[in-house]
Amino acid sequence: MHESFIAFMFFACADGNIKNFFSSQGADCRRALKVNQAGNEVSNCFDSLFGRLDDVVRKDDLCRDLESAQKCFGMAIARSCPNFAGYESLNKKFFHAIRKPCNSDVSFGGTQGTLQDIKVAERANGFCYRDSTKHHTRNRFIYWRISHDILELVEHSLDVNLAGNRIRYKFVDTPILDGVSIHETYDNVVVLVPTVCSVHRLIFPHPDKYHRQDHVHPDLAAPSIFSEATIADARDPSTFHFFTNSSSQLPYLADSSLTLAEEEAIFVLAYPSGEILLVKQSREGKVESIELKSESIVPRFLSGLADKLR
């Protein structure tokens, strides 16, 4: 608590922070937050901060709730003040200050360290389109690579010159797990991304939407599916979900898949303790999380097996 108070005083007394808060843009942003909040969004950020805690406030729970609150306010600011980076910076600095005691208490596989210190293996893979009969999808593939908290996507074609074919996403201080997958639907190309505290569904238009005729002149550039991607799309609340880890550990393994019929994203995340978190996200953004624990799975399995044998 003492560390948080000192860090907060440094934050409050910093000249640049005060100027940003009381600037004309800052005033406009505060008004926009009051006017544009959907369903009392800002109030809900405050209400959810300690909503699930018991009478005794545990440090792990407090740190996780502060992190969730930072993301909650960050999304509200991004929607109401998209052109004022100063308030987003203030949000990060404020929570970094009051979370001072938490910055070294994140546990991963029994090792203490900050989220930034978590080491995840760099991975890369590729995806090719199913239909090899069409000129614009044959010999066309997507290469992806993850490096800590950065996901890089590159689309290549041997038959078509693609414009705007490279994009990078930075999940700030949130390591990406090896569980990225790419799926092709009738209308879209969907990239599923699991991190140590969130799951994301990045949606891009299918190449068929750009190519209404089969033949494209080889000297003309055609738009890549990444050419019109925006920050607003990535920040759409219906495309991602932050989950709360039930213990002080973080997931270290993950996998993802997409059901073709309902286009439901399925993420499976494994913890060092043996627990598994199943996250299902519908096309509309509705999320269902199920915690699977070894001590609860085995008895149910054996019980069901015994019923079958009777």
Automatic annotation (TrEMBL):
<dbReference type="InterPro" id="IPR059141">
    <property type="entry name" value="Beta-prop_Nup120_160"/>
</dbReference>
<dbReference type="GO" id="GO:0017056">
    <property type="term" value="F:structural constituent of nuclear pore"/>
</dbReference>
<dbReference type="Pfam" id="PF11715">
    <property type="entry name" value="Beta-prop_Nup120_160"/>
</dbReference>
<dbReference type="InterPro" id="IPR021717">
    <property type="entry name" value="Nucleoporin_Nup160"/>
</dbReference>
<protein>
    <recommendedName>
        <fullName>Nucleoporin Nup120/160 beta-propeller domain-containing protein</fullName>
    </recommendedName>
</protein>
<dbReference type="GO" id="GO:0005643">
    <property type="term" value="C:nuclear pore"/>
</dbReference>
<keyword id="KW-0813">Transport</keyword>
<keyword id="KW-0539">Nucleus</keyword>
<feature type="domain" description="Nucleoporin Nup120/160 beta-propeller">
    <location>
        <begin position="140"/>
        <end position="306"/>
    </location>
</feature>
